[in-house]
Amino acid sequence: MSAVRFKARETIEQVEEGYDLAPRFDDRGLITVVTTDATSGELLMQGYMNAEALSLTIQTGEAHYFSRSREVLWHKGATSGFVQSVRELLIDDDQDCIWLRVDVAGGASCHVGYRSCFYRKVPVGTDFEAGQREGHIDLEWTDTEKVFDPLDVYGDVPNPTKL
Amino acid sequence: MSAVRFKARETIEQVEEGYDLAPRFDDRGLITVVTTDATSGELLMQGYMNAEALSLTIQTGEAHYFSRSREVLWHKGATSGFVQSVRELLIDDDQDCIWLRVDVAGGASCHVGYRSCFYRKVPVGTDFEAGQREGHIDLEWTDTEKVFDPLDVYGDVPNPTKL
Q1: Most buried among A34, A114, B10, B28, using CB within 10 Å?
Q2: What pLDDT, on the 0 to 100 scale, is given for residue B90?
C-alpha cells in the first residue's frame, strides 16, 4: 500500500481551484478536522491530524487523528471500539481543514459517553436576552442519555480534558 | 445589552457535565468554530472566535469570527452581504469548540464563491487504492457552480488564503 504523497503549495489558484491535494499543516504540523455523522449530519467531534494520520485515514478509510493531549497518533476506536468508517473526506478552499463524513460503529464519538461531543447549547439573540441574568447564562442540555459508561470503556485512563 | 460573562474553568466535572459556559481560548485567545447549514446539515466553513466575537455572536444572533489572516473582528457578511443567522450555538464536552447551525442570507459562505468551502473530496480506502498512481491522487469536485463572482463582491481586497 503506497503512502499518500501531498503536493507542495505553490499558488493560490492551485490550492483553491486545482486538483492537487496540498494540505496546509500549521506550525505544530497539524490540520483541523471536522467529523460529522454521514447519515444524520450531526457534528460528532472536532480534532486534528498530522501528515501521518491524514495519510493513514486516506489509505485505510478509517479515521486516524493526532491526539494533542497525549501527543500520539490516534486510531479512533482502538480503545473504545467506536471506529469511524469514512464515507467521504472533503477538504476546504485553502486546504487547511478536513471534513470527515463517517459511520460510527456503536454510535458514540464522545469520551464523556454521549453520541456527539456537542450535547449542550448556548441561548443566542433574543433567547440570550430573555434568559440571562447580568450576563450570566446557563447551558441547555440537548442530549442527556449516555451511549456508554466511560469508566467501563476507558477504566483509569486519564481524562483528556485540559482546564 | 449586557456583555456575556464567561465562567472560570475550575473542574473537569464543571466543564464537561455542568451548566457553566466556561470556554477554553487557546494561547492566541481563540476558540475553534464549526459552521453548518441548519437546514441541509452541510459543513459551510471552519473559523475562529476570540472572546469578543463569541460574546457578540451570542448577543446578536449573527455569526462573528476573528480573522486570523487580517487579525480583526469579523462580522461575517459585512462585506459580502452573506450574513449568517445563528439558529443554534452548541459547545463541546471540554468547551474548546463551538458549533454554529446557521441560515445564510444569499446562500454562500465561501470566499471563492461556492456555497460551502468544502467543494472537493479526496478518494479514501478502496477508492484511493483504485485511483492513485504511486501515491499521487486527484481531488474530485463535488460542486462546480459558484453562487457569486468573488471579483464582484470583494473587488481588489487581498485573498485571505496563505500558502
Answers
A1: A34
A2: 96
Cβ atoms B156, B141 nearer than 8 A: no
Residue B70 burial class via C-beta count within 10 angstroms: exposed 0-12, middle 13-18, buried 19 and up: exposed
Residues of A whose CB is below 8 A from B86: 124-125
Q: Is B37 left (phi over 0), alpha (psi -120 to 50) or beta?
A: beta
Contact A162/B94, CB-based, under 8 Å?
Answer: yes
Q: Establish if A151 touches chain B: CB-CB under 8 angstroms.
A: no
Q: What ipTM describes this predicted complex?
A: 0.88
Show the cell assigned to B158: 487581498
> At residue B1, does pLDDT exceed 70?
no
A77 — phi, psi (to 5°)?
Answer: 100, -10
Q: Taking 70 as the threshold, does the pLDDT of residue A163 lie above it? A: yes
Mind listing the pLDDT tens digit for each residue in A30-78?
999 999 999 988 999 999 999 999 999 999 999 999 999 889 999 998 8
Residue-wise DSSP of A58-120: HHHSB-EEEETTTTEEEETTTTTS--EEEEEEEE-TTS-EEEEEEEETTS---TTSSSSS--E
Per-residue pLDDT of A144-155, as tens digits, reads 888 888 888 888
How many whole angstroms separate alpha carbon B118 and alpha carbon A149?
Answer: 35
Cα torsion angle, B85, A122, B101, B98, sign: positive
Widest pairwise Cα distance in chain B: 59
Q: Is B25 exposed, middle or buried (0-12, 13-18, 19+ CB in 10 A)?
A: middle
Entry field: residues in chain A: 163
pTM: 0.90
